[in-house]
Structures are given as C-alpha cells and as structure tokens.
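Below is a filled-in request sheet from our internal design queue. Each sheet records the structural input a requester submitted and the sequence that came back. We keep these sheets so that new team members can see what a complete request looks like end to end.

REQUESTER: design group, bay 2
PRIORITY: normal
MODE: inverse folding
CHAIN LENGTH: 208
BACKBONE (tokenized):
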C-alpha cells in the first residue's frame, strides 16, 4: 500500500518542517541506491546580462546554512557568481525516481572551511587545483601535463601542499527547495519549501 503523509503525498516526503532534514533523509537513500556520484548536481548560473550556463558539480557538504561545492575562483561558474549570485541546483536520482531543485544566493566559504576540505583531498587533486587554469583555453594537453609536472616539483611533499588563493568553496543559501517524486502517467508529486520573512519555511503543493 502506498502510504500517504498528512499532505496526501507519498510517505517518502515525511511530515517535516525543515527542508534540510528532508534533504538529508533523501540524500541518505540516494547514497545507498544511486550507483554513481549521488552527490552530483546540475548547477545553473548566469551572467549579469542573464546568459545562462549549466554544468555538473559535486556537493561537498550541507547544513542549515546551505549547500557547499568547491571550484576554481577564476572558472566560468565563479565568474558568473561574482556577477550574479543567484543560482540554482538540481539533483536527479534516477534510481529513486526523485529530484530536488534548490534556488538561492551563494557566498564564498571561509578560508578555514576551504582549507579543511582542501587538505582532505588526495595529492593529485590538490596539485590539480594549482595546475589547471579552469575554463581557460589550452593549446594542447601537454600544456596541462607540463603544468602538473611543474607543480609536483614545486610541492614534492605530499603532506604540505597549500591551498591556492584562487581555489575555494561556494555556499548556496536557499530561499526555496522543491522535492519531486515521479508519478504514474506523469502525475508527479511536488512539495516546495519557501523561506519566509521570519526565516522559517512555508510548505506548498505544486501541480505536476
């Protein structure tokens, strides 16, 4: 039997006032059942003129303050964010037939937070953060390989690779989070949390 919550939705939506708590429940399910990168999300940004871009990135943390990902601060996504901090995220877990859409504003994480995550990465990844001028045009692949080799010589102690100033994290503080469940005949179930002026969350049902 398909059990329902008090809103008449599938019980997987639960009856929670905090969308971060519901996200955590769904994310744990995705980590168990999604075969590849359950933390992958589509990140949508736009320039100050409204020209959009979308790409896949990896979620590296979340709490009541927002959703965090890391990148080169000179990349296309970061340059878009500097011009227009309004962004959107979309998680799609095919194995669960679920989707989560998040809209809000981003801000840079603290140096302390960025350092902690950077130092948890493997040596090759830390070197890559130095070697890759993300989104810039390469003459050829050897240019990148040579850059990697140069920084490996510079930072040959695997336990002592400082975080470059041009690499950090962004935190998306959401003003809305929508949870979506696939339904038969495209009659999907949608629950949207909207942050109100009291900094609490209102819940609304959306038509499929």
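RETURNED SEQUENCE:
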């Amino acid at each position: 039997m398909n059990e329902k919550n008090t809103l008449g939705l599938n019980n997987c939506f639960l009856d929670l006032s905090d969308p971060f708590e519901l996200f955590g429940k769904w994310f744990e399910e995705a980590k168990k059942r999604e075969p590849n990168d359950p933390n992958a999300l589509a990140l949508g940004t736009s320039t100050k003129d409204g020209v959009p871009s979308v790409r896949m990135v990896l979620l590296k943390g979340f709490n009541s303050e927002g959703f965090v990902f890391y990148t080169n601060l000179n990349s296309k996504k970061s340059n878009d964010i500097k011009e227009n901090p309004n962004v959107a995220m979309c998680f799609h877990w095919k194995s669960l037939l679920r989707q989560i859409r998040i809209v809000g504003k981003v801000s840079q994480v603290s140096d302390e937070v960025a350092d902690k995550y950077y130092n948890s990465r493997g040596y090759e990844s830390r070197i890559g953060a130095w070697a890759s001028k993300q989104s810039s045009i390469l003459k050829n692949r050897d240019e990148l390989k040579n850059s990697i080799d140069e920084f490996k010589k510079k930072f040959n102690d695997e336990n002592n690779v400082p975080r470059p100033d041009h690499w950090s994290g962004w935190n998306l503080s959401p003003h809305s989070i929508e949870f979506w469940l696939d339904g038969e005949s495209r009659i999907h179930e949608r629950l949207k949390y909207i942050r109100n002026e009291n900094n609490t969350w209102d819940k609304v049902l959306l038509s499929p």
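SHEET NOTES:
- The mean pLDDT is 96.
- The beta strands are 40-46, 52-58, 61-63, 66-72, 86-93, 98-108, 167-181, 189-195, 201-206.
FILED BY: M.R.
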